[in-house]
Amino acid sequence: MAYRGDRTRLAVPGWLPVVSLLLCVVGLGVASYLTYEHFDTHATFGFCPESSGINCQKVTTSPESRFLGMPVAVLGLAFFVAAPVLLVPAAWRSPSRWIRGARMLAVSGGMAFVVWLLYAEFFRIHAICLYCTAVHVLTLLLFATVVIGTAVTAPYDADEHDFEDELDEDEDEDELGAAAPPAGQPSRLSRSSHRL
Amino acid sequence: MAQTKGQQRKTEARERARVRREQQRKAERRRKLVTGGTVIVAVVALVVALVVVKVTSGSSSDKNLNAPVSAALAGAISSVQPAAYDEVKAGSASGGMKAADAGDSPLTAGGKPEVLYVGGEFCPYCAAERWSLATALARFGTFEGLETTKSSSKDVYPNTATLSFLDAKYTSQYLTFTPREVQDRAGKDLQTLTDAQSALLQKYTQGSIPFIDFGGKYILGGAQYDPNTLKGLTADQIGQKLGDPASPIAQAILGGANLTTAAICKLTGGQPGSVCNSTAVTSVAGQLTSGSTDGSS
């Protein structure tokens, strides 16, 4: 019941904008650091050990660290900068198909990119970057949050004529009285029985 | 009365319609939640599948290539002519040596200054740095058990030919050398670090290797030259190039060795004089105190 809204403003569970924005803020922080290290010629990647399997330097300087000429770190930063626009309470409350669609499209695109980057890390670069992994996890959580949020805030599309039909049926019943229903249709009694 | 009955029926109909709509609303939401949950589970399953495939296929990793150094290579490392060092000076080595924090306790072992090296056999930067370190240390003592190997085939600068300190024994009257190769060529754990060694590694390079602590006085984090310099060469070919000061190989390796030697000379009090007072060492010693040069890894 708490989710019910009207046709101009959807009711939104309180946790939804909070969680989604919090994920964005953390993601923004990590993506900012990755972008900084990307452009820092003396990148150190603190807390990212350098082993054969974990190597932030190797991942962030690999050919796969660029997508269409753009550093992936910058794309990640842009994602977490732009996403909050679609995740503020007002956007969540909006029944606009455009806003809801754009939000789903954004997180789906982000998630698809994460899957590609995981593939690249595992099978092309042969190393993972802990900071990148943090961004991947945050994107997955954001994706899950938006998918669930979109489901629970979905506007109910029942047409008004449903209600009118119901009234019309009852009025018809008044006029027909106890007349037998046409062949092949359930009787009022049987319909009532079904409801019970 | 009839009107009242009609109104009552309408009210009941409205109530039934409201209940039905509410049921439909709940069913619709449930359906969308199930769909959304299925999508999430599918995405997570895809990620898990990638991880599983990676983990299960990871067993076909690099083979151990360790082999004792040939007599020719051992000779090439230990008998580089002083004139060659003098000619190269810093060569193409970019340095990277910096002074340790003044508060650091001096590293000693066996009553002598200690040089701590932390690296990994997979690591291409370690592969490059070992050549300079081994040639520098060979000026102060002797090695036994040195091996040749190659860096990982899956890392940057793949298959860089190098030495391994894993089973090496070093003897010197001037210093103690403590090498730690933490992982093999395939990334499997080898030698462990003490808490104190781990603390130094974290403090100065946040865990990055290669890491060399010269007696608690100087720190080197990273390689002093580009591992690409060694590309395509075998260990024996690299050894042969050490005798040619004009070669890019000697410029890189001996240049790094001179800077390393200068740092070691600060620990040994300038002993032996034949090494520490050489043109090669005195000409690069100034780079240690400035701390102005940067590592390459």
How would you describe the overall organization of this protein?
The complex is a heterodimer of chains A (196) and B (297). Chain A is mostly helical. In chain A, 63% of the residues lie in helices and 2% in strands. Chain A has a two-stranded antiparallel sheet with strand order 1-2. In chain A, helix 1 runs antiparallel to helix 6 and helix 5 runs antiparallel to helix 6. With 297 residues, chain B is α+β, with helices and mostly antiparallel strands. In chain B, strands 2, 3, 4, 9, 10 and 11 form a six-stranded mixed sheet that branches. In chain B, helix 2 packs parallel to helix 6. The N and C termini of chain B lie far apart (94 Å). At the A-B interface, helix 5, helix 6 and helix 7 of A face helix 1 of B.
Mean pLDDT value of chain A? 78
User: Roughly what fraction of the amino acids of chain B lie in strands?
Assistant: 15-25%
SSE series of chain B: HEHHEEEHEEEEEHEEHHHHH
Which geometry of chain A do the CA atoms define? Answer: elongated
DSSP E strands of chain A, number: 2
SSE order of chain A in H/E notation? Answer: HHEEHHHHHH
First-to-last CA distance of chain A: 23 Å
* Sheet having the most strands of chain B: 6 strands, mixed
Approximate helicity band of chain B: 40-55%
What is the percent of helical residues of chain A?
55-70%
